[in-house]
Design a protein that fits this description.
The protein contains no helices and 5 strands. It has strands at residues 2-4, 14-20, 23-28, 32-37, 44-46.
């Protein structure tokens, strides 16, 4: 699934790597691998296909 972090547009598009409970590991274009806590941040889901 492709996502964006609503507060960090500079990170670019991210690809969800894993979901365990409320922990989401996302690999972002410009920030690398980041652990997101879903209870604190709601990621924007992208429906468009990758370019």
């Amino acid at each position: 699934m492709r996502v964006r972090h609503p507060d960090r547009p500079d990170w670019g598009v991210g690809q969800v790597q894993s979901v365990v409970g409320d922990r989401i590991t996302v690999s972002f274009e410009h920030a690398g691998k980041v652990l997101i806590i879903a209870t604190k941040i709601t990621l924007q889901i992208l429906d468009d296909p990758p370019a």
